User: Fold this.
Amino acid sequence: MGTGAITDGRYTVGAYFALVADGVLDPDERVELLDGLVVAKPPQSPAHAAGIRRAQRALRETLGPEVVISSQLPLISGPTSVPEPDLAVLWGKLEDYEMQHPTDASLVVEIADTSLAQDRLTKSRIYANAGIRQFWIVNLRDHRVECFADPDRDARVYRQRGSASDGTRLPIDAFPHAALRAEDLLAPARLTDDD
Amino acid sequence: MDGGAADDRYTVDRYFALVAQGELSPEDRVELLDGIIVAMPPQDPLHASGILWVERELRRALGPDVLIACQLPFVAGIGSAPEPDFAILPGSMVDYTRRHPTRASLVIEISDSSLAQDRLTKSRIYAQADVPDYWIVNLRERVVEWFADPESETRVYRRRGKAIGKAQLTIAGFPDVTFTAEQLLPPVPNDF
Assistant:
């Protein structure tokens, strides 16, 4: 089956966007393209939505008003993936993305409660393959931030990975002056004690 | 980059080994779809009541001895272990104490937020696994989408259609059993 093209029924980015034009996919459908598969995005829990708001505020405060931060919007990540990360810090200016979706980001953040395994095992490979410099998983289940850095694109893995809890500083490589701490991204511990 | 993408996908064996290795918790709600680990969303009441409703209708029509697996692993080829809402399995219980099923006469997905995934991704997986009949109980549009006559190599069902109201649905593996579309759709309360 290996003729070079995607022959095992997987969608390329072009074929995926054509599904909307062809009426097969509703534009409002909550889906992502992950390694050629059309995958549903579950409805969000309040904790997940709150996690996005919290992380977005923290990034905005530390990065300032001009940096482009997209939330749950398409990020073309190689020939067969279009995830919609919870947050992506993009290079350049807003105007750079009027005609095309971004294909790179300096940082991607996923807020994970029920999606934790998917974020660790599937999304991390996709973002590493796309060369995304840093990938953070805000792990609401275990109250910590899992940090991935130094992507090996060919091997689809991040060479560095670690875990940050309250009090740990989280550097962003593309913004050496950014001062973010793990607790800026995590709900106050007392709200999660009853887990 | 394109060349490297094919090789790190999970096989079914590696996927189940992830639990033993502690990478995946048995409580993680995930499926393996074409080598990709995908989260299964928490079920909303509409989906859950669809499960209850269809389970009763299947049991009534098929009798007490037919195996009806509900949201359990189904090994569908080398790279897929979905957990379909329903799979009608051949054989008897003891056939599955040491291994997950690899064949089913019918698979059903109850679909609201997962509709696109069930149509575009799951249908290919079930066609490849040669599941003769696949139904999507589409709660959003209140129709049953049916797929029949799978072609394993191309991963498509050659025949497909939509059934509404009293339109009849048949299963190749059970020639004496028919369902109507409305029989498979849970009633909607008036205050909806």
Notes: Chain A touches chain B through 40 residues (CB under 8 Å).
